[in-house]
Amino acid sequence: MKIKFITSLALVASCAVAQTNNSAAIELDTMVVTANRTAEQDYKVAGNVDVITSADIKENKYLNVVDALKDISGVYVKTMGGNAANAEVSMRGFGENSGGRVLVLIDGQRLNSPDMSKINWVSISMVDIEKIEVVHGGSTALYGDNAVAGVINIITKVPEEKYNLSVKADAGSYGLYNFAGAVNGSIGDLMYNAFVNAYGLDGYRDNSDFTSYGAGAAIAYDLSDALSVYARAKYSDVDQGLSGSLTQAQIDEDRRQSVTPDDRSKSKYVFADAGASMEIAPEQNLFLDFGYQLKDTSSDYVSFFSWTDTDENRYGILPKYVASFNLLGNNNKLTVGADIYFNDMTVDKYGDADKTMKSIHAKLSKDTIAGYIHDQITFDEDYILYLAGRAENCEVKADINDLNTPTSFDDSKSDTETAFDVGLVKTFDETSKVFAKFCTLYRLPFLDEQVSYYGFGTDTFYQDIDPETGWDVDLGTDVDVSGNLNVKVTLYYMEMKDEIAYNAVTYRNENMDKTRHMGVEASFAYFLTKEIELFGNYTYNDATFINGDNKGNDIPLVPQHDVLVGAWLFLPAGLSFKAEANYISSSYLGGDYANTGSKLDECVVVNALLNYDCLAKELDGLSIYVAVDNIFDEEYSTVGYQGWSADGYYPEPGTTFAAGLAYDF
Length: 665
Prior knowledge:
Layout: H1 2-14, E1 32-33, E2 40-41, E3 49-53, H2 54-60, H3 65-69, E4 75-78, E5 88-91, E6 102-106, E7 109-110, E8 129-136, H4 140-143, E9 150-156, E10 164-172, E11 176-187, E12 190-201, E13 210-222, E14 227-241, H5 248-253, E15 264-281, E16 284-301, E17 306-327, E18 330-350, E19 358-379, E20 383-402, E21 409-428, E22 432-443, H6 447-450, E23 468-481, E24 485-497, E25 500-503, E26 508-511, E27 515-529, E28 532-545, E29 561-570, E30 575-584, E31 587-588, E32 599-600, E33 603-613, E34 622-629, E35 637-641, E36 648-651, E37 656-664
Parallel strand pairs: 6-9
Antiparallel strand pairs: 1-2, 3-8, 4-5, 6-7, 8-9, 10-11, 10-37, 11-12, 12-13, 13-14, 14-15, 15-16, 16-17, 17-18, 18-19, 19-20, 20-21, 21-22, 22-23, 23-24, 24-27, 25-26, 27-28, 28-29, 29-30, 30-33, 31-32, 33-34, 34-37, 35-36
């Protein structure tokens, strides 16, 4: 492992060999972000925010959101065999079900399901993304449920007057294909954009394939100088294999095999939203957004003799008032809003593939109503004080009809939680900052944490499951040095009470003992010359139990160290080359709270990309690339669980090749 790691770093370092006497300051622009739920420059936010722009997506040839998130400090992506469709994003040292502690939004509307099902990342088309904002740290006061460790806000492209047409195609190892097209323009005063996308993969392992087809459109219209309206709609269809875990003996025999060759999942997604913004007075604006999401999933777990149909509907209403005014001689920006969501879910479980033998019919709902306030006060032009508060009520209802056992029930529970933030920022030269932030946190239970409806005769409504609560302190900086070096560092300390996890002894979800999460998130980007950019990041997570039977033990599935180093080399004639190496330390398997079993091995994964942007005037806008991931064919897993008879692992892909072209007209 050490030899391979040294070789990997040498490969990356070789990209940076050049004379430095041509060095010149390169402007590092500030970015407008929505971390405070209003547009704000990133150097004014009380926390570090990473932004992946549409230009970054094109430059790095990201095929899906997961590929892009892997390059961000503090973000750890776990996949079951390299399939981005079922990847789970972890931040701040959360292990099992870590995705439940990261809020994911698309254009401000939440994507996290009311149950524990993961976000299907391949259902989000990359050609429709304007930027991805990653907000580090707790943001419960502003965003509510799930926003414990961070917030990922995916912002799609907005209609514009300027006409633009882009197309792209990718192909690669294990049956990879990706075709997409997008158009933007206007008809009179009506602006529009639209996209189509077809994306698929045969998969590294047997039965790890997926296909995704999507399309969407948006329109925007300025009714007057003070009133604007918009509407968007998207549809995607995803069919994927579920390859299952392998024991170490099965991996040694054939790491690409599947012992669940017939398990599959098919999902249809509909996303629609509409809204209006109105200036009611100078520096005073009203926003009203409506959202609807539909998710229909059919899961065939043949290996467990289980077939399930799940229908989810979500309705969202998000009103907001934003005003800027002078308060006692200081600039003040006030945001007051509400988040209202109605989630309905119907689950039908069957005992046969033809779905004639229904065993369970479940109707569940999770309705939340929250109000929040955020105030930003600027003192002496370069000191900014943030105050935020939130109150949220959640009502869960479950009507479970078990047709095989006498365990039917109809029950409900209501929880009310509050959270607050206080933060202070000192800015420098309108590019840099230091900040401190304290916040309280909560996460509401998922439906299938609060309610058991698995059909084993022990189904019930767990009235004793409480929301997770905690607090978090962040100290950090985001500094631009000499115009060509940017450094971000965040130190954090978090304590959580009542984290929810599955107990394999009692066969139910339970609130766990108190946990502590502390660590460091650091990243840098350095233009050594105009032709060479060095970049890297480091994440340190120390996540442990601080009381109970497991006091002092590590939280499973949390690697303590995650290091990424790389370089861009910008060559003549439109060529550019990127190489990077990612080291991930070992971690205990899921479920091993006692820390007595095997670990996921440490690993080093090296990737490279060669890109060509055509400089000929008649082909301006043409880009061609080739990429190789996992160059040294590292054998590793990012997910594994402790088992009764044998541990289960999900092997990641070996060496992978991809190539493609894109053309902007």
